[in-house]
Amino acid sequence: MNNTSNQLLVIFGASGDLTARKLIPALYNLYEGGHFPENFAVLGASRSDLTDEEFRKRVVYESPYLKDEVKKKDKDFIKKFADMMFYSDLGSDYDSEYSKLNKRIEALNKEHKLDENYTFYLSTPPSLYEPIAKNLSDQGLTKGSGAEKGFRRIVVEKPFGYSLETAKELNIGLQKYFKEKQIYRIDHYLGKETVQNLMVTRFSNSIFEPLWNRNYIHHVQITNAETVGVEKRGGYYDKSGALRDMFQSHLLQIVSLIVMEPPISADADEIHNEKVKALKSIRMMTEKKDLFENTMKGQYVASSINGKRVKGYREEEGVDPESKTETYGAVKFFVDNWRWKDVPFYVRTAKRMPTKVTEVVIHFKTPHHQVFKEQDVNNKDNKLVIRIQPDEGILIKFGVKVPGQGFKVERANMDFYYSSLSDKNIMDAYERLLLDAMQGDTTLYARADEVEAAWAFVDPILEYWANDKDVPTYGYPAGTWGPKNSDDLIEDSNGWRNPGELLTDETGFCII
Ligand SMILES: NC(=O)C1=CN([C@@H]2O[C@H](COP(=O)(O)OP(=O)(O)OC[C@H]3O[C@@H](n4cnc5c(N)ncnc54)[C@H](OP(=O)(O)O)[C@@H]3O)[C@@H](O)[C@H]2O)C=CC1
Ligand SMILES: O=C1O[C@H](COP(=O)(O)O)[C@@H](O)[C@H](O)[C@H]1O
After folding, report:
1. Which class for 320: exposed (0-12), middle (13-18), buried (19 or more C-beta within 10 A)?
2. In contact, 149 and 117? CB cutoff 8 Å
3. Hey, what CATH class is 7-157 in?
4. Which CATH number applies to 190-373+447-489?
5. What's the CA gap between 495 and 476, in Å, rounded?
6. What is the CA radius of gyration of the chain?
7. What is the tens place of the pLDDT at every residue in 9-54?
8. Adjacent-strand bridge partners of 476
9. Strand runs (DSSP E) across 161-270, as ranges?
10. Where are the chain's structural domains?
11. Measured distance CA(188)–CA(255) in Å, rounded
12. Separation of 492 CA from ligand 2 center, angstroms?
């Protein structure tokens, strides 16, 4: 059933990279999947001077991101999609042309019977979020007549703030013009099927939740590794770094889903309430000693991968040649509540690692009495590996008897891969999130207090890394698993689980 109301999607920053690379292809997939309402239109807006036709050319007909679709699909289908795109330029200062924009919105609303439902998507530099919201409000565009007909929603891209203070300012700034229920803060990791599955794995089974606590869990590791460097975003990244770019948002969102208590229902507010409680229970580190012992930053240096020289971070375009910005960030922390007391969490994120992978590994405690002595001491704990990407799935490692005399124990794997659900097409994160915003579902968007709770934990680390001259920035050769001493952060265990090159078994997929 299609329960998306007729509406207009207004994209600010429509001439930019995100619009062409992610938003329009996501819309295309939604259209192809039959998720558009009966009446729908997209109005692109930015400073560039473009006609409707030029905009259509840019984001559909000549878009490098829709090349295959345009070639493959029948022409009428593509034309129908492209004809839903319109464009209005906003002049040079994003300030003067709002009455023109308003008139275009009214005209499109009438012509296409859009029921005065408007979703505003802000894909611009964050400094424009509040001014755009104000301009929309000045035009009377922020208040609709209801939730179904005449709704007004605003979607804002990351980064949401640069620190706790700036995130608070941004929240206050947006809330002047929109109610919290109208604000959708994108975190594209929440649009990933496997991230959503964290809650389902925990709360729809009775076999995991009884063990999901300090009595059975030894520690938790979360790894987010990318093979790419900073690409063309050196200028942005050098001011941001791994902790702001990935940890504050995506990774702490994952942490909140691992740590949270069961919500009373799947209602968006109930889930957000539990996530906020989870984030607030992470123990803040403010003392230099704690920050020194529990955090580690690194930066990739030039190396050779498969015989090809790969640049070091400081050689990247837009990066200060003496930059101390981290491309590797790892943090150990504890969660101060009944369930998680004394269980260490280790979270790391980095660019230029050997493989692209995001996974959560729950390391269970070894049984308190060891009956079978012939166990590999380095590999005797049970692990639950939740693979967020790629090869989305879940794997449990458990002990089995090696055939033959005696009781030799080895680890066996029990696994599930999303790819085995051949009839289910996994939606891309942007596709899913756009559809949710179009349908008014905020569950997979970050609430104001969630974002602030995450910044509250990250701020002291960032401040310490930026201002304390004793903080080392460890180099690691591009294409390796981070600084040589990265395992030092992890006590009492075998160090980080480094998923090596992905092995391929006969089904084509394998977590190792
Ligand atoms: N690209 C990506 O992969 C991702 C982007 N984001 C976020 O999405 C937003 C857009 O990113 P992206 O599309 O990459 O950025 P681009 O620089 O490619 O596009 C920015 C857009 O904003 C418009 N704009 C208006 N005023 C300004 C200004 N003063 N300076 C620069 N641009 C302006 C630009 O168009 P014009 O010049 O015509 O006005 C352009 O359409 C950012 O907040 C970014 O952090 C988040 C995750 C990933
Ligand atoms: O938000 C961001 O995410 C990407 C990684 O996203 P993924 O879906 O490919 O895992 C990261 O490369 C980028 O630096 C960051 O801004």
Report:
1. middle
2. yes
3. alpha beta
4. 3.30.360.10
5. 17
6. 24
7. 999 999 999 999 999 999 999 999 999 999 999 999 999 999 999 9
8. 300
9. 183-185, 217-225
10. 7-157, 190-373+447-489
11. 15
12. 31
